[in-house]
Write a structure and sequence with these properties.
- By secondary structure, the chain is an alpha/beta fold.
- Helix content is 40%, strand content 14%.
- The protein is built from 8 helices and 6 strands; from the N terminus they run αβαβββαβαβαααα.
């Protein structure tokens, strides 16, 4: 929306979230507004089958998550989230449609979170049948094998990319752990992002 106000064209906004996030008010408000304004937006939803331990059957009543697109008057795309080729083709199509003025595109990838929601979660609630199905495939491993078969990358390249990602995460964690926590008595904070609207400002209280 901001880029439209600035006259910037040929760009597409993108967001990625898990299926549990589609049950939040912020998701509804954002997608509804984007649909009304026909904004060039692509929203990718990873349908993990469980929002933490809540199965999709307890998250929404529609037959498929992609059916939510109908309620917003936008186009939905259902894709096998473990199939790299299908994901690339679908996202390319969604981006082209969003960029050409056809409004927001909702892309739902079907896959399974293969581990718990955190270190404390052993994912005992996951239906074993899902783990044995196609949706339970390790999408990273499937993509790795596909890239190698297509000759797009050598195993050494993929391993290098993987290690680079691991290193970046570990560096970020280490940086945060070295930092001290915020001191509420020293922080110059404001209840509102726009400081001139804060009630703490003298000029506001004098009005």
């Amino acid at each position: 929306m901001a880029r439209r106000f600035k006259g910037i064209t040929s760009t597409v906004g993108a967001a990625c979230l898990g299926e549990g996030g589609t049950s939040t008010g912020s998701f509804h408000e954002a997608l509804n507004q984007a649909a009304v304004e026909k904004l060039p937006l692509v929203v990718v939803v990873a349908n993990n089958q469980y929002a933490y331990s809540t199965p999709t059957s307890r998250q929404f009543a529609c037959a498929e998550l992609v059916d939510k697109a109908l309620g917003y008057g936008i186009e939905g795309h259902d894709v096998d989230g473990t199939d790299l080729t299908e994901c690339l083709d679908t996202l390319r199509d969604a981006l082209e449609k969003a960029r050409s003025g056809k409004g927001p595109q909702l892309v739902v990838g079907r896959l399974l979170r293969l581990c718990g929601h955190g270190e404390h979660d052993d994912a005992h609630y996951v239906d074993p049948r899902l783990k044995q199905s196609l949706v339970g495939r390790d999408c990273i491993e499937v993509a790795r094998q596909y890239l190698t078969r297509q000759g797009w990358a050598e195993p050494a390249n993929i391993q290098s990319w993987h290690q680079e990602a691991v290193d970046k995460v570990e560096q970020a964690v280490a940086t945060v752990q070295r930092e001290s926590g915020p001191d509420p008595y020293k922080e110059d904070w404001s209840a509102l992002a726009s400081r001139h609207l804060s009630e703490m400002r003298p000029e506001v209280s004098e009005l």
